[in-house]
Amino acid sequence: MPSRMPLVLLPGLLCDAALWRHQTDTLADLADMTIADVTQEDQAGPMAQRILAQAPDEFALAGLSMGGYLAFEIIRQAPDRVTRLALLDTSARADTWEKTKLRQDLIDLAQTGEFKGVTPRLLPRLIHPGRMGDAALVGSVLAMAERVGRDAFVRQERLLMLRPDSRHDLSLIHCPTLVLCGRQDGLTPLAESEEMAEKIPRAKLVVIEDCGHLSDMERPRAVSAVLRYWLQI
After folding, report:
1. Which residues lie closer than 8 Å to 101 by C-beta, 6 or more apart?
2. Could you tell me the residue range of the domain that residue 13 belongs to?
3. Is 127 within the bounds of a domain?
4. What does the DSSP 8-state code read for residue 57?
5. What are the pLDDT digits (tens) for 32-67?
């Protein structure tokens, strides 16, 4: 076994490598980390195929939000290649009709030249209400969205609208699995993390207090500490 574990990190919607900055800075002694590009395809299957083609033969896998949805697709395609799994602030459920309509409304807004208006609309659901005044955090989230850009955002939203319900696959995941959620996550509520942790055979649930959806940016030290433990179990 190599001295450092290969670890593939999957960003969420409108997120890039900055989402995982604290982890890449502090976990390099344990893991050889690669941050996947999640901007190129508008379907989960082809995106997972590309990520797998670029990944080591065996690797640990961590995804936040949309990254978690992609992790389920990667597990479906290559279950024996994933040695351990971390699902952060995500859900195994498909979109409801209401969520699909909201995504289409945001696509329409972006395509009519108002892409910069998308993230401010999402922001109150992305971070804890008490951090809306944190200029550094808000600025980092807005800057990520700007770098990802309108076209990739539209592709990502289409992927999310079409993703399957993964609940029936949870019992088939047999690697050590971390399920982590911010207590005040407004996009993927804690109950959905509890559901995953209950149905995945070797899962452990960790709740980060005073934290919203972007847990690894809001509470980076706590999340990195949990991931450090997960990498060593």
Report:
1. none
2. 5-95+160-232
3. no
4. S
5. 999 999 999 999 999 999 999 999 999 999 999 999
Distance CA 217, CA 199 (A): 27
Is 139 contained in some domain? no
Q: How far apart are CA 82 and CA 215, in angstroms?
A: 23
Please name the residue that has the structure tokens 């896998």.
61
pTM of this prediction?
Answer: 0.95
Domain holding 27: CATH number? 3.40.50.1820
Instruction: Transcribe 62-123 into DSSP letters.
Output: EEETHHHHHHHHHHHH-GGGEEEEEEES--SSPPPHHHHHHHHHHHHHIIIIIGGGHHHHHH
pLDDT at residue 95 tops 80: yes
3-state secondary structure 172-202: HCCCCEEEEEECCCCCCCHHHHHHHHHHCCC
Query: Per the structure, how many domains does the chain have?
Result: 1
Angle, in degrees to the nearest 10, between helices 97-109 and 135-162: 110
